[in-house]
Amino acid sequence: MRVHRSIGGCAALIGALLLLAAAPASVAQEAINTPAATQPGEGNFVNTYKLRLTHYGGTPAGSDGSANEVRLEGLLAYGLTGDLSMSIQAPLTSRTVSGEPTISSETGVGDMTLQFKYRFWQDDFGPVDTVRASVFAGAELPTGNTSLGSDSVDPHVGAVVTYINGRHGLNQALSWKFNTDSADEVWRAGDAKADLLRFDTAYLYRLSPQEWGPDFVASTYAVLELNGTYETNGDTELFLSPGLLYEAPRFALELSVSIPVHQGLDHRPEPEYSVGVGVRFLF
């Protein structure tokens, strides 16, 4: 048995992020896998944590073996103005690969993402009904851990539209990532030296309350997402992701299960399923 571990300073980073977890929550009708055209108000912070478990039926070395990955994504966003925000995201990944005759395990911080988002259009046509559109741009920044990221700066651009009408909500996002180098091991969409097109759709239906009263109360949503990727090396995948979202005045919780409905992957292992839970805070 061979075991390799690399922590690389992640404990201090995650500890600093966890200090922010005592703050009240953001209410945004944003699904766990799909961005929304919402953001913190001027001078406010939004702190988001997403924990994902993914099982791979294979490894970058071939179809023999499998892997389990646990990934904690911590994101901190700040409202520069009412329409402009900046955010930074840091993923902590623990991956265990099982194969013959070895088992390997690694834990560390992957590439960080710095992003700016600008909301250029907003039409509030009812008390809670709205249409909003935003553009965003940023880059993945290396942390030096090339087995969980790359040594390159990889920019990205995108846009997202959010529509809320009564009990129905819809988010539609499209983004393009320019990859200038490859990670040492290609596991996820965007790890290879190939540009990445990502398209995400989320439909939310408010289960409760049926009607809004004079005061805001907690609300529960059924969520259905369609999340897809296309890479310029020809790899494509599409996931159907049902879930639940609970939003209270001071916190929000979310749960999602991602099931592949199409996979055409020649350059990385196939994820067989993914389970995600999330929480976000506003302060």
What structural keywords apply?
about 55% strand, mainly beta, disordered N terminus, Porin, globular, twelve-stranded antiparallel beta barrel, about 280 residues
What does this structure look like?
The chain has 283 residues and is mostly beta strands. The chain has one domain (10-282): monomeric porin ompg (Porin), CATH 2.40.160.40. Helix content is 3%, strand content 55%. A 12-stranded antiparallel barrel has the order 1-2-3-5-6-7-8-9-10-11-12-13. β12 and β13 (271-282) form a beta hairpin. Residues 1-27 have low confidence and may be disordered.
Number of helices: 1
- CA-to-CA gap between the ends? 47 Å
Based on CA atoms alone, the radius of gyration comes out at 19 Å
Uncertain ranges: 1-27
The named CATH superfamily: monomeric porin ompg
CATH class: Mainly Beta
Label the structural class. mainly beta
Strand order of the main beta sheet, please? 1-2-3-5-6-7-8-9-10-11-12-13
* Residue share in β-strands: over 45%
| Number of extended strands | 13
CATH fold naming: Porin
Number of domains: 1
Mean pLDDT: 87
- CATH architecture type: Beta Barrel
> Biggest sheet, open or closed, and with what strands and sense?
12 strands, antiparallel, barrel
The best one-word shape is globular
Provide the succession of SSEs: HEEEEEEEEEEEEE
Helix content class:
under 10%
